[in-house]
Amino acid sequence: MSTSANSADSTAVPYVDYGYGSHVGLRRELNEDSFVVTDRLYAVADGMGGHEAGEVASSLAVQALAEGWESHAGKVGEQDLQRFLDDADARIREATNSKAGTTLTGAAVVEAADHHTGEDHRGQWQWLVFNIGDSRTYLLNDGALIRLTRDHSQVQELADSGMITAAEMHSHPQRNVITRALGAGDMLGADFTTATVDTGQRLLVCSDGLTGELTDEQIAQILNAGRNAQETVDWLIHQALRHGGRDNVTVILVDVT
Questions:
Q1: What CA–CA distances, in Å, run from 122 to 111, 119, 126, 162, 252?
Q2: Fewer C-beta within 10 Å: the chain N or C terminus?
Q3: Full-model pTM
């Protein structure tokens, strides 16, 4: 799913160019990924559950997020986003009888606020990044790729504990086992982080169909190759397929110009 919208204060928002794409991959019959792209909200959901239930879960997640965003006219904070995710979780459980789940990650462009006073600082913009599951959001800043999210997965926990290396995460037999999801298991809050929006940055939001096939170093090399946003998205998906295409792959790339 993709949507687009124009907010009333879009003239004040940093100008962005973006590209996006999704591919079923080479080994799956269904594409259970969904995504949303608006002028200031970018998110990817990777559903799981089989028999189309994963597609239902991911679609409901991005719908709830987009509807919440529009109802608040894009003026949101962490608590608002968490409420949208709680709504998504409830919708998925009702629609699938708690037999499907989905990841959800991405970022909203919001005005920076003083967390002590709640005051807006006009003209200062932030990425408000959210994550639940093992889809990822990255920021390319001055050529350096920074991962803004931490996977909620068994292999991430093993890597954090030093039991496996980052390289071994790609081939580990439990690489697809996630520890947090919308619509399944115990509902836990999302992780949130912020980063300043600056000209020249590239924000990457993707499902693990990309990161399961390409290393961060390979992704960074493609992001730094000088192609525009859509060409870069197409190249990332192409490379994921060339490296095996074992899963659905969905990519959103946002350039701050």
A1: 7, 9, 11, 43, 27
A2: C
A3: 0.90
Distance between CA 106 and CA 103 in Å, rounded?
10
* DSSP class of 178: B
* Strand segments (E) across the chain: 16-23, 33-37, 41-48, 101-102, 104-113, 120-132, 136-141, 144-147, 191-196, 202-206, 249-256
Round to whole Å and give the CA distance between 181 and 158.
18
Q: Can you read off the two tokens belonging to residue 23?
A: 């591919």
How far apart (Å, rounded) are the C-alpha atoms in residues 257 and 244? Answer: 33
Residue 114 has pLDDT above 60, yes or no: no
Instruction: For residues 181 and 184, give the distance between their C-alpha atoms in angstroms, rounded to a whole number.
Output: 6
| Arithmetic mean of pLDDT, 233-248 | 97
Confidence check: pLDDT of 165 > 80: no
Can you tell me whether residue 7 is helix, strand or coil? coil
When mean pLDDT is compared across 12-16, 113-117, 129-133, 186-190, the lowest value belongs to: 113-117
